Amino acid sequence: MQTKKSLSAVLWLLLFVVLASFPWLATRAGEDFYIGVVIRIMIFAIAASSLNLILGYGGMVSFGHAAFFGLGAYTAGIAVVHGADNAWLVWLLAAAIGGTSALAVGYVATRTRGAYFIMITLAMGQLFYFLFVGLRQYGGDDGLRMSVRPALGLGLDIRSETVFYAVVLGWTVLMHLLLARLVRSRFGLALQAVRENEQRMGAIGYSTRQYRLIAFAVAGVMAGVAGALLAMHNQFVSPKLLHWSQSGTLMIMVVLGGMGRLHGGFLGAATLLLLEEVLSGYFSYWHIYVGAILLLVVMVSPDGLVGLGRLFRRKAAAPADAGRAP
Amino acid sequence: MGVLLLEQTLNGLQFSVTLFLIAAGLTLVFGVMNFVNLAHGSLFMVGAYFAAWFAGMLDSFWLGLLCALPATALVGLVIEVLVLRHLYAKDHMVHVLATFALILIFNDLVRIVWGPLPLPLDLPSGLASAIQLGPVPYSSFRLVIMLSGVLVGLLLWFLVTRTRIGMWVRAGANNREMAIAMGVNVKWLYTAVFTFGTVLSALAGVMLGPLVAVEAGMGDGVLILAFVVVVIGGIGSILGAAAGALIVGVVDTLGRTALPALLSATLPPAIASSLGSALGSMMIYLVMVLVLFWRPSGLFPANS
Questions:
Q1: How many angstroms separate the Cα of A159 from the Cα of each of A78, A155, A300, A325?
Q2: Looking at this predicted complex, what is its ipTM?
Q3: pLDDT 10s per residue in chain A (326 long)?
């Protein structure tokens, strides 16, 4: 077990080294295009990880998480339109808006459970979606264009793709470490216990709704930051970011990557976005393949791709075991 | 203003009736199997596609309708037996993801089979004109939609409250374990309920087909509205679906038309039009949140 743990740590360190040197490698290979792809993967990894906190660790099936992602993006867009020229300020605002709106939505949603929780988060998400579709002074249906990326200071030029890549990588690592700390803390353990048996946790004196609500708000903060990063990356925000199907996509990422697994968000975002990249290159109708893969995964493996791999190994091992039986 | 209001109210009622057709099937499946079916909107879309296809070949809207219903029922039956049946016992998140996957599959499948462009579906020839309702000329086809919705509502009421199958359905929704213990063949019942819900959704798709574009993804928006209806009405309750559909249909239509007009009387026009359209679309979700705040299991909870 100990060797397995350190092996995984080495693997993740290796991945970090690869990610950190990626822009240099891509530029060398003349494939600059893929720098943007990896930036998108990292941003969606943050958003999916934030959903993993409430979905995987908190057991709350939120079907409106894209709202906080999109709110963060619009916060950045609107701030820039009104002349905000400091990236740190934009991130702070996006985190605050994402967090407070998640607190408000969570206040209503955590009163409910099960199917009603799904439905109420879905409705709240659509509420925000239609808010931005209707706000014509911020582009309405057409979306909002940002003329500049807010400046980073520190003598760094954020307009450079490599610098922006480094910024997003920094945020990804930071959020990842934050999530790792959080789920191993007292709070995280209590949250997982509430997921397993809310009644028992209530009986031994935990105010379970508070734990769920705080997790919901923290996830909103993370999603808000991810949204602001995406807005800065695209220099464009569309209400589509808040649409319920986007919430579905984030959920797919978490489930593919593994619910309640620390690296589930990252793994899922990378898998789905790379899959889309590859499939859309070969087929004009590629959603059908994503759908088929997703259906297969949820029908046979509740544990995502990691679980799917284990399932195949077990299937392969089973005949050998049968042969050994007397 | 009065004429406009009357016309918009009629449109709202017609919208309510269509929503009821979709929500009735959804609430039955939700209530009886405790199954969250996002693919319900896809069946609505498949129904409309079949109708447009058959109507094009047979050169008659009504023959198209007649062929589309059993064809869509077959599609519903197949996905119930192949996929959904194996998921009822799993938790809601698995339902959401599996049926979301079905949406992706169906949206691309109709594009592959019928091409990326919307299919034309003409109004039935006798109903293309408007008839005079007091001071308002009103589409006779929309009136037929309303009539068919009311008839289906009555049929549902009869089936659910006056027949043996209806009794099983109510028993299944109220207390599944007890229904099983009393010898109801739940597996068969589930398939029947799902297929029946499919037919209702397909009917809504066919009737709405000539009024909207028959295209991939046409069921996605309507699906969310149907869920709002089901949740407002109370999961599993047909009466609740009717009440919810009425509320959502009328609030949505009036919110989009009357609210901007109302606001422009008090606010500067630029702000009023923007705020009005935003608020108008948000109205029904606000109503849903309020309803759930005061009555967490909807207006007519089925299990009370």
A1: 19, 12, 45, 65
A2: 0.85
A3: 456 667 777 888 888 888 888 888 877 877 777 888 899 999 999 999 999 999 989 889 999 999 999 999 999 999 988 887 888 899 999 999 999 999 999 998 888 888 888 988 998 899 899 888 888 788 778 888 888 788 777 777 777 788 888 889 999 999 999 999 999 999 989 888 888 888 888 888 888 888 999 999 999 999 999 999 999 999 889 999 999 989 999 999 998 888 888 888 898 999 999 998 888 888 888 889 989 988 988 888 766 777 666 666 666 655 544 434 33
Q: B188: distance to nearest CA of chain A, Å?
A: 21
Query: What domains are there in chain B, each with its CATH number?
Result: 9-124+138-294 (1.10.3470)
The reply to whether residue B108 touches residue A112, judged by beta carbons under 8 angstroms, is: no
Do the chains contact at A298 and B101, CB–CB below 8 Å?
A: yes
Task: Indicate the residue of A120, A122, A294 with minimum beta-carbon distance to B101.
Answer: A294
Q: Quote the minimal CA–CA distance from A167 to chain B in Å.
A: 33
A127 to B231: CB separation less than 8 angstroms, yes or no: no
Cα dihedral sign for B107, B113, B116, B120? negative
The nearest alpha carbon in chain A to B88 belongs to A299
Interface residue B21 vs chain A (CB under 8 A): no
Taking the whole predicted model, whether its pTM rises above 0.90 is answered as: no
